[in-house]
TrEMBL record:
Highest taxon listed in the record's lineage: Bacteria
Record organism: Micromonospora tarensis
Full protein name: GNAT family N-acetyltransferase
UniProt cross-references to PROSITE patterns, sorted A to Z: GNAT (PS51186)
InterPro entries per UniProt: Acyl_CoA_acyltransferase, Bact_Acetyltransf, GNAT_dom
Keywords: Acyltransferase, Transferase
Signal peptide: none
Residue span, N-acetyltransferase domain: 4-162
Entry-linked Pfam families: Acetyltransf_1
Amino acid sequence: MTPPRIRRRRGVDLDGCVAVLAEVHRLDGYPMNWPVDPHRWLCDPRPARAWVAVDADRTIVGHIAVHRAAAPAEGQFARPTAEVARLFVSPAARGMALGGALLARARRWANERATDLVLEVAVGDTAAVALYERTGWRCTGTRTAPWTAPDGGSVSLRHFTVRSDPPPRLAEQ
């Protein structure tokens, strides 16, 4: 079996992304609240970059986006920062380390730009938390989401961060 390939997302990929997202939502409840317009949800806010994982048949089996971080409160971020968002993997493609591969692709993008990455995940999403911790992310706190769960209850979010690798030092001659 050929492992899925990760490439930049194109506009023509959105229908396939929404189909996978619908499967993930039915199985895992992600996103917690199904968006009114899932195509727009995948594109808002306009991502700095987005990638898809495609299998040998060119079927979308995973997705990740990196959004430019909103202008932070003064002093919140000491370095350039972007947010990882919209990470999901098709239930049929799980067990192939795609979540980690998609996160690694986002980290390469961030490293090329000396940019740290942040993300938030619902406290109860233990599989996602385990993935982030396994791939080097560090939980830096929790907060209550500015939106509610489908039942109207509050949602606690865990905030994770990973620093970009420093650029290689040039040897002095």
